Amino acid sequence: MTAQSIHADPVRLLLFGAVTHNTHRIHYDAEFARSEGLPAPVVMVGLHGCLLFRAAVAAAGGDPAAVKSLSWRNVAAASAGTTLTVTVKSTGEVFPDGTASLNLMEADADGAAVCTGYAIVALPAGERP
Amino acid sequence: MRWAASYAAQVNSRSDLDIAEERARDLLQVTEYSTLGEVTARDSAEFARAAGETDPRMTDSDSPDFVVHPMYVVSLLRAAPGRVDEDLRPDGMFRTEVPGTDGLAVRLMAGGQDVTFHRPCLAGDYVDVSRTLIWVERKDGKSGKFLLMTVAKTYTARGRGIIATLNERFIVR
User: Fold this and answer.
1) CA-based Rg of chain B, rounded to a whole angstrom?
2) Is pLDDT at A124 greater than 90 in this prediction?
3) Is pLDDT larger for residue B94 or for residue A87?
4) For chain A, which domains are there?
5) Is the pLDDT of residue B14 over 80?
6) Can you tell me the distance from the alpha carbon of B51 to that of A16, in angstroms, rounded to the nearest whole number?
7) How far is residue B64's CA from residue A84's CA, in Å, rounded to a whole number?
8) Is A19 on the interface with B (CB under 8 A)?
9) Low-confidence winner among A41-50, A66-75, B5-14 (lowest mean pLDDT)
10) Chain-chain contact of B116 with A69 (C-beta, under 8 angstroms)
11) Nearest CA to CA, how far is B8 from chain A (Å)?
């Protein structure tokens, strides 16, 4: 099992929102977030995806091109300021084309699940069937 | 005139969520096209750093092994230039980001994504996007009624073919 983390502080969210052109107030405007029933601004879906992607790459041996597909579902909002950690577990599935599947779990600093994910990755050459 | 008043009352009793659902159902399977423009190594590297990536192959555009971060183009909401205030909802979202919700007082949240990578995106690629609303479902949960929508996107590099396909889920309350 491997893990990757990121501190999703407000500066990180501002930077990520800027480079992806995401101006939704829910990610940086605390008053607006409260009006939406949230305790604080929340981490954007794309930033979750990038951390899940990084974890899948690491589990596959470090090659960014090894990730063939990545899926995830938000199961709870992650508040700005938390540290997110993705843990990866092999499902045990290995496919004839040399790929394998991974289960991904992203949790906040309190250990609460915020995303669940699944990836198909190419196995390193020495591990292919 | 009584019927007219009754009809008006019925129309007015429709919530913005009702209107969003009606509009979305009319947009099902309708494909729209846009472009993200040219992908640059500098922009992708900036994206990778903002995402917390540490691999210099993705964060350093001068690296001899540089690769465009595979999540870069699928994470972009729009191309960089040309945006004006009129394109945004009061909540800061692009008016057209979630189909059928323009001008309505509904709350929007992302629900997750499914990304398939077909070939690497290269610096210099000119990327076009097609978008189709493929699913609308009304739910009645503990916190009230809401819509689930799924949008399918295809990212194509001109002259090279499909880079990635994406299914993106939205929650509309």
Assistant:
1) 20
2) no
3) A87
4) 2-127 (3.10.129.10)
5) yes
6) 6
7) 31
8) yes
9) B5-14
10) yes
11) 30
| Separation in Å, CA of A96 to nearest CA in chain B | 18
Write the residue in A25, A51, A74 that is nearest to B110 by C-beta: A74
- Stronger pLDDT, B11 or A47, i.e. the higher one: A47
- Indicate the DSSP class of residue A62: S
The ipTM is 0.95
CB A5 within 8 A of CB A83: yes
Residue type, A73: R
Range list of H helices, chain A: 10-20, 30-35, 45-59
CA-CA-CA-CA dihedral for B15, B18, B22, B28, to nearest 10: 130
Tell me the shortest Cα–Cα distance from B126 to chain A, in angstroms. Answer: 17
Q: Which domain holds residue B88?
A: 15-172
Q: Supply B148's token pair.
A: 């689930």
Are B71 and B51 in contact, with CB atoms under 8 Å apart?
A: yes
User: Which residues is B34 bridged to in the sheet?
Assistant: B129
Hey, are the CB atoms on B55 and A25 less than 8 Å from each other? no
Question: pLDDT-derived band of residue A43, with 50, 70 and 90 as boundaries?
Answer: very high
The two tokens of residue B36 are 């993200």
Assigned domain for B1 exists = no
Residue with tokens 């001899």: B64
B130 assigned to some structural domain = yes
